[in-house]
């Protein structure tokens, strides 16, 4: 049982991949990125996340938790998440997708060629 203040992540991504296919799922991740990003900076920032907390159902998150979320995925250290960092983070948060990520990425790239 989760503690009252603990955020429980239910992994819906495998079901989304089954329904949308690899290419459709990657498009949805990109749509999610665009929804959350700061339009002027072209990346997801703590501020852009803060502005979308209600949309995400995460109204109770503190600034420190938001900073940790961004820092977790910020691979290049610029203080935000670009589209690739966001997609990488989403894959890392999904144990089932991590197991099948190579196949999914190959399918997505093949459909782009």
Automatic annotation (TrEMBL):
<dbReference type="GO" id="GO:0005509">
    <property type="term" value="F:calcium ion binding"/>
</dbReference>
<dbReference type="Pfam" id="PF13833">
    <property type="entry name" value="EF-hand_8"/>
</dbReference>
<protein>
    <submittedName>
        <fullName>Calcium-binding protein PBP1</fullName>
    </submittedName>
</protein>
<dbReference type="InterPro" id="IPR011992">
    <property type="entry name" value="EF-hand-dom_pair"/>
</dbReference>
<dbReference type="InterPro" id="IPR044205">
    <property type="entry name" value="KIC/PBP1/KRP1"/>
</dbReference>
<dbReference type="InterPro" id="IPR002048">
    <property type="entry name" value="EF_hand_dom"/>
</dbReference>
<feature type="domain" description="EF-hand">
    <location>
        <begin position="61"/>
        <end position="96"/>
    </location>
</feature>
């Amino acid at each position: 049982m989760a503690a009252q203040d603990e955020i429980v992540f239910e992994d819906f991504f495998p079901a989304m991949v089954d329904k949308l296919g690899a290419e459709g799922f990657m498009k949805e991740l990109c749509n999610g990125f665009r929804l959350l990003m700061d339009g002027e900076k072209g990346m997801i920032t703590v501020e852009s996340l803060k502005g979308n907390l209600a949309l995400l159902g995460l109204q109770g998150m503190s600034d420190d938790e938001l900073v940790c979320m961004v820092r977790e995925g910020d691979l290049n250290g610029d203080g935000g998440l670009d589209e690739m960092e966001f997609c990488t983070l989403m894959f890392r948060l999904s144990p089932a997708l991590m197991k099948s990520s190579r196949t999914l990425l190959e399918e997505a790239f093949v459909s782009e060629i």
